[in-house]
Every structure is written in structure tokens, then in C-alpha cells.
Write a structure and sequence with these properties.
Keywords: Signal. The protein has twelve helices and ten strands. The protein is an alpha/beta fold. It has two domains: about 160 residues, Bordetella uptake gene, domain 1 (D-Maltodextrin-Binding Protein, domain 2); about 120 residues, Periplasmic binding protein-like II (D-Maltodextrin-Binding Protein, domain 2), CATH 3.40.190.10. Strands 1, 2, 3, 4, 5, 6, 7, 8, 9 and 10 form a ten-stranded mixed β-sheet that branches. The protein is globular, with a radius of gyration of 21 Å. About 45% of the residues are buried.
């Protein structure tokens, strides 16, 4: 048996890996989790799940604040302008943290304005229609859109978000047209779709799952390359028609902090997030919502985000899309 001397024992913390020491960081004051979307959507749900877990783990309040608008850029700027002390976090997503950099002309932040902490969940978007739409399959839906000749309306959770661009890309590939009705988040979008004020949408499956199961909306296809385990009978859109073969979109949500936040804080929060993702109940809940946990290091998440920025930059340039973040 090895016996440590008092001097060796005192020196031991200095020899521990930075990741181990980082896990001792605690905010000491209330933490804000900014959601760049309206209440009721997937981003909001993920933020509240994260906030509840961290509040219990830290013994410190973690308050979720919704700052919607301008494709998620308003909420993002709230975090970019905040002190890099770990006490203001962003529950970011594919829209303002990947798509927005190429879509918006006048962004006041860049990828290096934020530091990636941890991916939380990845999931498909899903093409859903109001029950009044006379289509049971994607080919029937495309035929209906062509008959409507631009009169059909679709809802989005915000201009520049992945549900919006999912619809844009779909229409480009299918050779169809429809009028976009933009909402301030997935919650208002779902309300409008269920009410029949818009006829279809591409929504996060995590948001729409319970409404699909209840019959309040009909799912025609998922945007990922493969079918979702949560909806095994709903095809991947790319498998339904040859013209849609290139179509593939995954949405994601994760934690970011302002650039300049100390590495030890980032690693500590990441370690806390990995603990949350490792809970069986977290995985079960995500599966029920149609998504899956996305564990990994801050470096893993940063690499993933850079790849998403590059991918969507290519799509947006090919489609010739540009708008102002106002």
C-alpha cells in the first residue's frame, strides 16, 4: 500500500489534470441561461431542463430568460455583450450559431464571439401538415404544392432558423413554391399550425412529437438521412423522391458562453453537462422527444459547430439567400 507524505498530499492537487480541478468551479451567484427563441419550443425546453439540473447541482439559481427575435441574433447578442465569467450562458442552436453567419448581412457577432461548451441534443426536423392538407405522402404533398402554385402557406419558428431553411431547400429541390409566415419561436408556430392558420411546417421533431402522436398534425417525412427511431413509420424525406435525394438536415442545441470565458469554467460546465446527459432519464426523455443525447468535450462541440457553419454557408450561397438581422 502506498502512503502519501503530508508534502506529497498537499502537492497532489497541482498534479491533477486541469479537467479534474475544473470540476470544482461553481458560479457562486445566480446564473442566466439565455434562450434566443420564444417559450414553448425545443430551445426553451432544453434550457429549462439544463437550468433545473445545474441549479440542483450547484445549489445556485439558474434562471432561464427568453430573448427571441431576428433569427436568434437578439438573444445571442445578449450573451456576447455579457461578462465572460460563466454566469451568463446561451442555449444556442443551428440557426444563430451556424446558419446566421452566412444568411445575415449585418451580424454584430462572429463565430469567435462565443466559446462552445457542450452539445446537448441532436434531432431531425419533420415535415408536418395540418390535417386538412390532402396529402399522405411526400410525393402527394409535392403534387399538392404544385397545384396550389404558391398559394400554400408554411410556418417557421423564425427567419433564418433551420425549420425555415429546411422549407426553402425543400422547395428549391422539389421545384415548388409556398408563402412563409414567420413566428417568434416554435411555440407560436405550433399554435398557428394546429389552428390551421398555416398549412404546413418544418419543425423540430422534439417540439412536434406529441402533436403528431395526438393527430393534431400529420408527419410526412423527417429531414435526417435515416428514419427517426421515434417515428419509424415516417420516411426520411430523401428516400421519397429522386429529386430530394440530396436532402439532409439535423438540428441541434447546445451551451455557449462569451468569448474570453476562462477554460477552467468551460471545462467545469462541460463536465456538469456530461453528468446530465449520462442520466438514463435524460436519454429516455430525449428519445421520447425524437432526439438523442450529444455528449462530448468542448473541443468536440467546437469542431462540430465549425463544420455546420461551413455546410450551411455553402447551401445559402448556392441558393442566393441573404437578409438583414433586424
Amino acid at each position: 500500500m502506498t502512503v502519501l507524505t503530508r508534502r506529497a498530499a498537499l502537492a497532489l492537487p497541482a498534479l491533477l489534470p486541469a479537467t479534474a480541478r475544473a470540476q470544482d468551479w461553481r458560479p457562486g451567484q445566480p446564473v442566466r441561461i439565455i434562450v434566443p427563441a420564444a417559450p414553448g419550443g425545443t430551445a426553451d425546453a432544453m434550457a429549462r431542463l439544463t437550468g433545473q439540473f445545474l441549479q440542483t447541482r450547484w445549489g445556485t439559481p439558474a434562471v432561464v430568460e427568453n430573448r427571441s427575435g431576428a433569427g436568434g441574433t437578439i438573444g445571442t447578442m445578449e450573451v456576447v455583450r455579457s461578462a465572460p465569467d460563466g454566469r451568463t450562458m446561451l442555449l444556442g442552436n443551428i440557426g444563430p450559431q451556424a446558419i446566421g453567419y452566412s444568411l445575415f448581412r449585418n451580424l454584430q457577432y462572429r463565430p469567435d464571439s462565443l466559446a462552445a461548451v457542450a452539445n446537448i441534443i441532436r434531432a431531425p426536423n419533420v415535415l408536418v401538415v395540418h390535417p386538412s392538407v390532402p396529402a399522405q405522402t411526400v410525393p402527394e404533398f409535392v403534387a399538392w404544392l404544385k397545384r396550389e402554385n404558391g398559394r400554400a402557406t408554411y410556418g417557421t419558428s423564425g427567419m433564418g432558423q433551420s425549420p425555415h431553411l429546411s422549407a426553402v431547400w425543400f422547395n428549391q429541390l422539389a421545384g415548388t413554391q409556398a408563402e412563409a409566415i414567420h413566428h417568434r419561436g416554435a411555440g407560436p408556430l405550433v399554435i398557428d399550425l394546429i389552428a390551421g392558420n398555416v398549412q404546413f411546417a418544418f419543425d423540430n421533431l422534439t417540439t412536434s412529437m406529441e402533436h403528431i402522436r395526438s393527430g393534431r398534425m400529420r408527419a410526412l417525412g423527417v429531414t435526417t438521412a435515416e428514419r427517426s427511431p421515434g417515428l419509424p413509420d415516417v420516411p426520411a424525406i430523401r428516400e421519397t423522391m429522386p429529386v430530394l435525394a440530396p436532402y439532409e438536415v439535423s438540428t441541434w442545441f447546445g451551451v455557449f458562453v462569451p468569448a474570453g470565458t476562462p477554460a477552467e469554467i468551460i471545462r467545469s460546465v462541460n463536465a456538469d453537462m456530461q453528468a446530465m446527459l449520462a442520466l438514463p432519464e435524460t436519454g429516455a426523455r430525449f428519445t421520447t422527444m425524437g432526439g438523442r443525447t450529444a455528449p462530448g468535450t468542448p473541443e468536440d462541440f467546437a469542431t462540430f459547430v465549425r463544420a455546420e457553419i461551413d455546410k450551411w454557408g455553402g447551401v445559402i450561397r448556392r441558393e442566393g439567400l441573404q437578409m438583414d438581422a433586424t
